[in-house]
């Protein structure tokens, strides 16, 4: 690997592991590194590559995947995770195991859940080693989330945020909760005309009244802070006019025609 890439790699590792990580700087370093890796023929390795260079390339892509989540850039995460499959699958017998592999595979599983890609979730899960499903915290977390979602145990999904095995997992759990809140809100609109603010906050897993008010405003609900009540806005039922006379006349015509046939 060229010396300039090694220098950029060292800068990236140092910055990304810093308590005050500069995400913008990391993004710039990653862009330069990916261009350099392409030029060096390491992003898509050819036959008999240097194992040390492969290990460094893999780590750069792994940092890029984690960086994408911190930057809240899901499409970027998808690209980095896709590029990593070459290193996880094709060169797994050349490279030592990566401590970041299972954390990233767990993140990918949660991403599939947030996109409601349940079939892809199970297909991806089946490709993992059996022991990982039971013993690895990074894999067990999304497996539990999927089960709780299917059960409708939304309070457990909410509690899973604090039990996340890595900080990046919380980003996708928050995304899941956004979907869950909208589903609960739709059911609430159909079931109730109004609710006390406190009950609505508990129902929607909001700990802050301001967050609840923001959500209610987005849904078009009326919030009365004096009475501490939320009034749901219901869509008017569409009324279809039934052409009664025309239907009766048509029915009589069919009856006469049937009499003539008989």
UniProtKB/TrEMBL annotation:
Residues 75-249 form the PCI domain. Keywords: Proteasome. InterPro entries: 26S_Psome_Rpn12, CSN8_PSD8_EIF3K, PCI_dom. The keyword Transferase does not apply. One of its GO terms (biological process) is proteasome-mediated ubiquitin-dependent protein catabolic process. Belongs to the proteasome subunit S14 family. This is PCI domain-containing protein. It comes from Botryobasidium botryosum (strain FD-172 SS1).
